[in-house]
Please model this.
Amino acid sequence: MRRVLVIGPSGAGKSTFARALRDKTGLPLIYLDMIWHRPDGIHISREEFDGKLSELLKGPEWIMDGNYSRTLETRLRAADTVFLLDYPVEVCLQGVASRRGKPREDMPWIETEEDPEFTAWIRAFPTETLPEIYRLLEQYREGREIYVFHAREDAERWMRGEFV
Model:
């Protein structure tokens, strides 16, 4: 495990899991949200993001936290391990609500209120985004360790070495 992706819907706890994985492995952690977003809420251009991502993917070791479906296939080709947090929508919405108003090391601003568009994206994730993720995981299964967790307890058990 040297090049790791942590993917899944917003609010699933990708960043929390990625930090625990960083602490367990010593691998450097890259938050894609910190690359894409600026502190004022505006994001960089796709071209600038793709250039930065391309450079990061050349690194020998990393954990990348973030879904970013548009670049998932590129990142899968470079990864040797993938963790998909495929949690129920309500768990993810609770996760987003619980972090509101709190500073986070994985986001350059503090979320202060519910964003209806963001909530709709989370609600649509299982039908609009997840099927493509599973298709890509199947396509790139060979030569990679792929872990799919359906509950926070699954991820916690894996961290304790109880999940195979």
Remarks:
- The longest strand covers residues 3-7.
- The chain has a mean pLDDT of 94.
